[in-house]
C-alpha cells in the first residue's frame, strides 16, 4: 500500500513541477511556442482550463496555476489521510 501511495505522491509532485514550468514559460517571449513549451502546455492546459472557467484574471494576471497547485496539494493530503486509515 505504501508503494502505491509513494508513487501517486511522486506523480503529483511531478505534475506540480510541470505546472510551475508552465507558469514560468509565460515570462519568456515565445516560451510556450518552443518544443518544450508545447509539451508542457499540452500536459497542463486541460487542468488549468478547469480553473480558467471559474476564476477570471485579476488586472490581466491569471492566478489559476497557483490554485491548480493548491488543488493538487489538497489531493495529496487527502490521499495521505485515506492511505493512513488502511
From TrEMBL:
Transmembrane segments: 7-28, 54-75
Extent of the signal sequence: none
This protein's UniProt keywords: Membrane, Transmembrane, Transmembrane helix
InterPro entries: CCB3/YggT (IPR003425)
Protein family: Belongs to the YggT family.
Annotated protein name in UniProt: YggT family protein
Organism of derivation: Fundicoccus culcitae
